[in-house]
Structure formats: structure tokens, C-alpha cells
Automatic annotation (TrEMBL), chain B:
It comes from Streptomyces antimicrobicus. It holds the Pfam family BPD_transp_1. Residues 257-296 are annotated as: Disordered. It is found in: Cell membrane. This is ABC transporter permease. It is a multi-pass membrane protein. CDD domains: TM_PBP2. Keywords: Cell membrane, Membrane, Transmembrane, Transmembrane helix, Transport. The lineage of its organism: Bacteria, Bacillati, Actinomycetota, Actinomycetes, Kitasatosporales.
Length: 276, 296
């Protein structure tokens, strides 16, 4: 990622943000699904972010997300992390530059790129099961089949017996688990997560991180995970992108609970905190 | 409702009836004049007589048919127009000014138009009933649709849904609480207008009968008409209220007054099962409500 505050800054001054395709680390899955053209699932090339009716964010973003990779994006408040995700989702057109999925320009929202919101985005009038069935119904899957599929996903997130409840009858953590199930049930190519655990307490959050790691395994989904929590980014990400400086850093031991005391992780943590 | 509150409500009604009976049987004639006024007993007797006649029930059927037709038309068209105006700038520009100009005209003032436009009296009365309920439904639907949380629509869009999916899965169900607010107002105004329209141009119906009784100086009959109008009005608005509460059972309600949607219950869980669940998923216990946290 290259985010140069004065537009004149040379991208070369930020070595890790060069447009070389990101190499997935050993933990990331299914490099075979890579787009042959670019080797990246999601690509942003010199993208200027911003709402159509507001000022554009300073600097441009260049970023590639490799197949099966989990890219964590951290940055200070208001730096455009959410705007980046909404642009990738297709909810917001870029002010300039090119945003593409598998080499094709992103023109609007699609089932290929599911967005998981920080706030409660479940439809409150639908039962938990009906919420998870939504992407399957949109895809035109027959009722019996999608019921089974939804039950399967609810089971994976540990909410099988809550299927017939309404979202308001669940706790905040449970609702986020339903959102995860709903996003993944449609088997999207990429999952975009906007501080999905940001509103949860520390204990719940750790449980959700483990659950996320667990259910992503084997899906081959490419994930962009926005968070303001450096430890969360270091735990979940294969790489961490710093929204402020434009650096993209490799995480030495992704998704290992005991890795936070390793020297490599600790050094990276200090480096990220210093640059924020 | 507790027995005490029921008693209080019944007592309030009984006191009003008792006062009526006293004032009229004593022919109280201070500033208000009760000497011509029928007593509660006379009205009750007249009502009992009328209940045994066929025309009473025919009138009732006519009025009910008119209000149901007019109201259902208003509900369907009102929700449609309200949604279109809220969702499409094109529809807002096309229909908005027209609606704002016609809206302040009381429906009952449209009687001359109804007589000019529509071939039969019957259709005219239904038209007036429709016009009365239409505007409250349009206005509340428009507000409810505009107030929808954008995150619901965005969620459906990023799951691959198109415009129609958003309309039927997000906009219409999400606007329902507001729509029912408009329907409740609408059914009340419809009653006022159907009775008034019947008084002006009806050939049957409760309003027509009430006015007829007045012109032939049958005062107990007038009161029978009023009691009937009141009862039917209460019946129809309660029906709308009940349907609305059922359709919006997903709304959070204060504890103790929940509509208890049995279908949404997850089923009883044994303590052992619950214990296992807590052990397996420690994440449920302390979860806070969603809120935006400050970013360091």
C-alpha cells in the first residue's frame, strides 16, 4: 500500500509498498485459485479514496491482496480504513485510480465480496436462520438445500440451536457470529471485515478471533480485515498494512496465540505502534 | 392488565353512562339542555330493537364494505407511492408537488369531485374513504423508508442482492413499523369520512341511517347510530393494531409487554446443554451492544 500525503511523494520511498505481487505466507491457502493475470484477488492501483460529496482523502493507495491471504489493515481514526473497505466492496466508487477483483474492474457491490460490518447489520425482522439463508436465496438455491447449508454454517459458528431466534434475542457477540456465517455462507471469493469485533469486550473478542481463524480454514477466502487493534492485526494477519504510512509488513507467525512474545512479533509490534 | 385496572376502566364507563342517565331523566336544563336528550335507557332499548331488524345489519354491512375497500386501496397505493417517492428522485419530482398540493384538501371536501367523476354513489363513497386514508399512509411510508438504516441495504447489496431484493427484503419489511403508524391514523380518518360521505350522499349505511333518524326526529335512533359508529370504529382500528403488532413482532418491546412470538423462540435448553454451550463459547456472556469505538 502506498499512501503518500503529498501527491508528489515517490512511491519508491516506501520500499515495502512496491507494486510487486504480495507473496502469500506459508499459512495462506489455495494459491492455485490465483488470477493468472495479476496473481492478486484484490488490486488497488493509485486509488484516491473518498465519498462523492466530500473531500477526497489525502494520498493514493496501491495494494494487492493475494489469494487466500488475510491482510490486516491498521491506521489511525479517520484515515479511511472503512472507506477503503467500502470502495473494495463496490459501495463507493474510487475518486480516481483502478480497483479490481481478479483483474476486472469493480463496478458495484457483488456476492463475490461479502462485507462484515462492525455494527449489527443483520436484518432484525428475519430469524437468525433466515439471515444466513439470505445470500443463498439471492443465488437462487432451492429452499431445502439452503436450509441445510444455513444449518451447517450456524453449527460452525456454534449457534445451531439459536436458528429460530430473532437477532435481538442474541448477545452482541452472537450477532457478530451470525454475520460471519451469513458472509461466508455465500462462499464469497473475498471477505471484507470492517472492525467486526470492535464493539466487543476483550474476552469475547479473543473468542471471536479464534472462531474466525477456525472457520476460515479450508474456505480459501481472501480476507481484508480492518482493525484499530494492533494486537488483533498481528494475530490474524498474514501481512499488516499501515494505512497512514502505506507500508505493508509481513507478520512472522500469523494466527499463533503464543507468538506475541517472540522477538520478531514484538519488534514488528513496536514498529507499527511507532508509525501510527 | 390487572383486575384493579379493569375495574377502574369499567367504573369510568359506568360513571359516564350513569351521569347521562341522571342528567336526562331529571331533564336538567341549565346552560346545557338535556330535556330533548334521550336517556341512556331509551337508547339502550332502541339499540336492542334495532339489533333485531334486518336493515340495521344491512347498513352495517354497507359501511364495512366501503371502509374495507377504500382502506385496502389506500394501504396498497399509499405504501407504493410512499416508497416510490422515498426511493426514487424521479418519482419524488414527479409526484411530490402534486401530493403536497392535494394533501391539505380534506377528503370530505372531495365529495363534489367524487360525484362529478364517478358513475355511482357507491364508488364515490369508497373514493372518499380511500382519499382519507391515502395521505397518512403515503406520508408515514415515505418517512419510514427514508429513515431505514443504510447498513441493511448495504448488507443485502454486498451479498449479491439487486434492487428488487433490496425492496422486498429490506425496504418494505423495515418500513413496516412506520407504515402501520400511518395505517392506524388512516383507518380512523377513513371512518370519519365514510360516515360523513354516507350522510351527504349515501343510500344505505350507518351514516346515512343516522342522518335519516335525525331528519325524522328519532333521537334515540341517532344515538344508536353513534354507538354503532363508535363500536365499528373501535373494531376496525383494533384490527389494524393487532395485525400491525403481529407484523412487527421483531421490534424490541419493553420487557413484560413483549408480543412473545412463539415461532421465534429457540426452544427450551437443558441446564447441562447450556453449561456446555457456555464452556464451548465463552464469547456470549459479556458482549456489549454494538458501538463505534475510538481508534487509537
Amino acid at each position: 500500500m502506498s499512501s503518500a500525503t503529498p501527491a508528489t511523494a515517490s512511491p519508491d520511498s516506501v520500499p515495502p509498498a512496491t507494486p510487486t505481487p504480495a507473496t502469500p505466507t506459508a499459512d495462506s491457502a489455495s494459491p492455485d485459485s490465483a488470477s493468472p493475470a495479476t496473481g492478486a484477488v484484490l488490486t488497488l492501483q493509485d486509488v484516491r479514496l473518498g465519498h462523492a460529496d466530500g473531500p477526497a482523502l489525502p494520498g493514493t493507495v496501491t495494494l494487492r491482496v493475494a489469494p487466500g491471504e488475510l491482510l490486516a489493515v491498521v491506521g489511525p481514526s479517520g484515515c479511511g480504513k472503512s472507506t477503503l473497505l467500502r470502495t473494495l466492496a463496490g459501495l463507493l466508487p474510487p475518486r480516481q485510480g483502478r480497483v479490481a477483483q481478479d483483474g476486472r474492474a469493480i463496478a458495484g457491490p457483488a456476492a463475490d465480496r461479502a462485507l462484515v460490518f462492525q455494527e449489527d447489520a443483520l436484518l432484525p425482522w428475519r430469524t437468525v436462520r433466515a439471515n444466513v439463508e439470505l445470500p443463498l436465496a439471492i443465488r437462487g438455491m432451492p429452499r431445502a438445500e439452503r436450509r441445510g447449508c444455513a444449518a451447517d454454517w450456524l453449527d460452525r459458528v456454534g449457534l445451531a440451536e439459536h436458528a429460530r431466534k430473532l437477532p435481538r434475542q442474541l448477545s452482541g457477540g452472537q450477532r457478530q457470529r451470525v454475520q460471519l456465517a451469513r458472509a461466508l455462507a455465500g462462499r464469497p471469493r473475498a471477505v471484507l471485515m470492517d472492525e467486526p469485533f470492535g464493539a466487543l469486550d476483550a474476552h469475547t473478542r479473543a473468542g471471536m478471533q479464534d472462531l474466525l481463524v477456525d472457520i476460515l480454514r479450508g474456505t480459501g477466502a481472501t480476507v481484508v480485515f480492518v482493525t484499530h487493534d494492533v494486537d488483533e492485526a498481528l494475530h490474524l494477519g498474514d501481512r499488516v498494512a499501515l494505512m497512514g504510512t502505506g507500508e505493508v509488513l509481513d507478520v512472522p507467525h500469523p494466527r499463533r496465540r503464543d507468538a506475541q512474545h517472540e522477538p520478531g512479533t514484538a519488534a514488528l509490534r513496536r514498529r507499527i505502534l511507532a508509525s501510527l | 392488565m390487572t383486575a384493579g385496572r379493569r375495574l377502574l376502566r369499567a367504573a369510568s364507563l359506568a360513571a359516564a353512562l350513569g351521569l347521562w342517565q341522571l342528567l336526562t331523566s331529571w331533564d336538567v336544563n341549565l346552560w346545557l339542555r338535556f330535556e330533548q336528550f334521550p336517556t341512556a335507557g331509551e337508547v339502550a332499548a332502541a339499540l336492542a330493537d334495532r339489533l333485531r331488524t334486518v336493515p340495521y345489519w344491512q347498513d352495517l354491512g354497507h359501511s364495512l364494505r366501503r371502509i374495507v375497500l377504500g382502506f385496502v386501496l389506500a394501504a396498497v397505493l399509499g405504501v407504493g407511492v410512499g416508497t416510490a417517492v422515498a426511493r426514487s428522485r424521479w418519482a419524488a419530482d414527479l409526484l411530490g408537488p402534486l401530493l403536497e398540493v392535494v394533501r391539505p384538501v380534506p377528503a370530505i371536501a372531495l365529495v363534489p369531485i367524487a360525484i362529478l367523476l364517478l358513475p355511482t354513489n357507491e364508488q364515490g363513497i369508497v373514493f372518499i374513504t380511500f382519499a382519507a386514508a391515502f395521505f397518512p399512509v403515503v406520508v408515514s411510508t415515505r418517512h419510514a423508508v427514508r429513515a431505514l438504516a443504510p447498513v441493511w441495504e448495504e448488507a443485502v447489496l454486498t451479498l449479491g442482492g439487486g434492487r428488487l431484493r433490496v425492496l422486498f427484503s429490506v425496504v418494505l419489511p423495515g418500513a413496516l413499523p412506520g407504515v402501520f403508524g400511518g395505517l392506524s391514523v388512516g383507518i380512523g380518518v377513513s371512518w370519519i369520512c365514510v360516515i360523513s360521505a354516507e350522510m351527504i350522499s349515501g343510500e344505505y349505511g350507518v351514516g346515512y341511517r343516522t342522518w335519516q333518524d335525525y331528519t325524522v326526529v328519532d333521537y334515540p335512533g341517532v344515538f344508536v347510530g353513534m354507538v354503532t359508529i363508535g363500536a365499528l370504529g373501535w373494531l376496525t382500528s383494533t384490527a389494524v393494531e393487532l395485525v400491525g403488532r403481529r407484523a412487527t413482532a421483531w421490534l424490541p418491546r419493553p420487557a413484560g409487554r413483549a408480543a412473545s412470538p412463539a415461532a421465534f423462540r429457540g426452544g427450551g435448553r437443558s441446564p447441562a446443554r447450556r453449561g456446555r454451550e457456555l464452556a464451548a463459547a465463552p464469547s456470549t456472556a459479556l458482549a456489549a451492544a454494538p458501538r463505534k469505538e475510538p481508534v487509537p
